[in-house]
Amino acid sequence: MISVNDFRTGLTIEVDHDIFTVLDFQHVKPGKGAAFVRSKLKNLRNGNTVEKTFRAGEDVGRAHVENRAMQYLYASGQEHTFMDNETYDQITLPSEQLEWELNFLKENMTISIVSYHNEILGINLPNSVELKVIETEPGIKGNTATGATKSAKMETGLNVQVPLFINENDVLLINTTDGKYISRA
């Protein structure tokens, strides 16, 4: 058990038989009434984000999730196969469990599988990935208004807004949390 007073970003907790990670929290001490903790939690089973309020000093269960380094091997229909880097065991996850992550997954990429008591909750991607541009409009010389962008389709199918100087076959660094362009690789 852990007190809500000890919340910190990234902590995994168990509330109402669900596993959550703490995205944000705020200790509130109103002038009248008891203190409480307002938190923003992400459900690791379904990806939903909820806001929950706890009384100050309330205890919640601590969830010990395991992260294992695995390599993405291939996709077969609606299933994706990963291999453990140490034991060479393979696991398969459905596309529904990886909707956002599929925008960044490339074959042979090393990621982290998140599990809780042998239940696979999902995967953790690196903060940024290198992806190749497969389709974009050519940049027009002189068209350099401040902050001008165009759409580019990446090798995984993700569409990203990029600066006008980006061309096809360029390799870009893309943020995996919001899917935005960072820089050329």
TrEMBL record:
Indicate the principal place this protein occupies in or around the cell.
Answer: cytoplasm
Q: Which CDD domains match?
A: S1_EF-P_repeat_1 (cd04470), S1_EF-P_repeat_2 (cd05794)
The record's subcellular location field reads: Cytoplasm
Q: In which pathway does it act?
A: Protein biosynthesis; polypeptide chain elongation
Instruction: Report the residue ranges that make up the Translation elongation factor P/YeiP central domain in this protein.
Output: 67-121
**UniProt KW keywords:** Cytoplasm, Elongation factor, Protein biosynthesis
Which Pfam families does this entry report, sorted A to Z? Answer: EFP, EFP_N, Elong-fact-P_C
Q: Which InterPro entries match?
A: Elong-fact-P_C, NA-bd_OB-fold, Rib_uL2_dom2, Transl_elong_fac_P/YeiP, Transl_elong_KOW-like, Transl_elong_P/YeiP_cen, Transl_elongation_fac_P, Translation_prot_SH3-like_sf
Give the top-rank taxon of the lineage listed in the UniProt record for this protein: Bacteria
The protein's GO terms of the molecular function aspect are:
translation elongation factor activity
Q: Which residues form the Elongation factor P C-terminal domain?
A: 129-184
What does it do? Answer: Involved in peptide bond synthesis. Stimulates efficient translation and peptide-bond synthesis on native or reconstituted 70S ribosomes in vitro. Probably functions indirectly by altering the affinity of the ribosome for aminoacyl-tRNA, thus increasing their reactivity as acceptors for peptidyl transferase.
Family of this protein: Belongs to the elongation factor P family.
What is the protein name for this chain? Elongation factor P
UniProt organism field: Paenibacillus hodogayensis
